[in-house]
Design brief:
Layout: H1 8-15, H2 19-27, H3 34-47, H4 53-59, E1 65-69, H5 78-93, E2 97-100, H6 108-112, E3 117-121, H7 130-134, E4 140-143, E5 155-159, H8 161-174, E6 180-185, H9 190-206, E7 211-215, H10 221-234, E8 240-243, H11 249-258, E9 262-263, H12 269-272, H13 274-278, E10 285-287, E11 293-296, E12 300-305, H14 310-313, E13 320-323, H15 326-341, E14 350-353, E15 356-358
Parallel strand pairs: 1-2, 1-3, 3-4, 4-5, 5-14, 6-7, 6-8, 8-12, 9-12, 12-13
Antiparallel strand pairs: 10-11, 13-15
Helix pairs in contact: 1-2, 1-3, 2-3, 5-15, 8-9, 10-11
Length: 367
């Protein structure tokens, strides 16, 4: 037995409104009361209604453009710039221009009149612009899942962020670390949430406490340095620091140098004996300006990053990192949006994007 496709008329009859009211409510256009709009969308979702994108494009002329919404901090991060270039390149292959949207966003109706579809990258539930974009009445693809209340079907391209942090924690443990720590990003994006949750679950599975310090989502090297200094002052037995935010790992290296902690697995506490780190005498500790001991001089520290980029590759020593392949990720997001617009994919399609681990001198083994 085959199920019949749900039509606008079916939704209109079930909601007790006209067919044109249903169309306006679902597209975010026209003068429809908010309560009516909510009721129509609830009925459409309950019935399993899916708009016919080909018919939708016939009803309104194509703009030949798609919109790109990035986090407000994106303009100074290599990751998002590379992602944007990849997205632009792929959209142009389908003859579409890419419009970079202001971080504050705009009302959904105004956006819908300017673009055929939207890319919303790392949507943060606390970003006031995101709900309006997801509800703009045009196809939407998110880079990572939106963890806030969804307003309609959206495609998504996702990375396994739990697996990437697990790989980093496994790696530093194999290289001798016994007391790893994570500088975790703030906020409630899918990426930030996955990293913080994984630090806890990995630690429980391995009987190890992963110390977590929260830093800004786009922490600067100076902010990462301050957080690392404070972390190592409170717990000098920490022998590996994994830094999440893009571009901030050099700050961890500066903190290590200032505290006399040699970076590299050949000097890690696990390689030379964790007990030796914990048992370092007063003469073996560095002091801060007030004379208080802040960490064992000469003991090692492994350093790694959750995001690869210019800062990690060009650091001294170069920093082990997860390469999220941002340009390819941007291409994948744009490709899914193009496929949805051309009816090659369903509006709620989810695709996976791969990452790779780049091991470098910051976690080099002895010898």
């Amino acid at each position: 037995m085959t199920s019949r496709t749900v039509t606008l008329l079916d939704v209109a009859r079930a909601a007790g409104v006209s067919k044109s009211t249903v169309s306006d409510a679902l597209q975010g256009s026209g003068r429809v009361a908010e309560a009516t709009r909510d009721r129509v969308r609830a009925v459409a979702e309950e019935l399993g209604y899916r708009p016919n994108s080909a018919a939708r494009r016939l009803r309104r002329a194509s703009t030949g453009a798609v919109g790109l919404h990035l986090p407000a901090t994106a303009t100074r991060l290599d990751y998002y710039m590379n992602l944007a270039f990849g997205a632009v390149e792929r959209a142009q292959e389908d003859g579409l221009d890419m419009v970079l949207l202001a971080p504050s966003g705009a009302a959904g109706g105004r956006i819908a009149s300017r673009v055929d579809g939207l890319l919303v990258i790392d949507p943060e539930p606390g970003d006031s612009a995101v709900p309006g974009l997801l509800d703009a009445g045009v196809p939407v693809v998110t880079g990572e899942r939106y963890l806030g209340p969804a307003t309609g079907p959206s495609g998504a391209v996702v990375c396994d962020n739990a697996a990437s942090l697990t790989a980093l924690l496994d790696h530093v443990t194999e290289r001798g670390a016994r007391r790893p720590a994570l500088l975790a990003p703030s906020g409630s994006s899918a990426w930030a949430t996955a990293l913080r949750a994984t630090a806890g679950s990995w630690g429980r599975a391995h009987g190890v406490t992963v110390t977590v310090r929260t830093v800004p989502f786009a922490a600067t090297p100076a902010e990462a340095e301050a957080a690392t200094r404070d972390l190592l002052a409170v717990d000098p037995t920490v022998d590996a620091v994994i830094c999440a935010p893009d571009g901030s790992a050099p700050g961890v290296l500066r903190a290590a140098a200032a505290l006399g902690r040699k970076v590299g697995a050949s000097n890690a506490s696990g390689a030379s004996g964790a007990g030796e780190t914990r048992g370092a005498g007063r003469a073996g500790r560095a002091s801060n300006a007030s004379g208080a001991a802040v960490g064992p001089v000469g003991t090692g520290l492994l350093v790694a990053s959750c995001v690869d980029g210019t800062a990690t590759r060009g650091a001294e020593p170069p920093v082990t990192a997860v390469d999220l392949h941002p340009a390819s990720y941007g291409r994948a997001c744009a490709e899914l949006l193009c496929d949805i617009l051309a009816d090659r994919a369903a509006p709620d399609t989810v695709r996976r994007h791969s990452w790779s681990l780049k091991t470098r001198a910051s976690t080099d083994p002895p010898g």
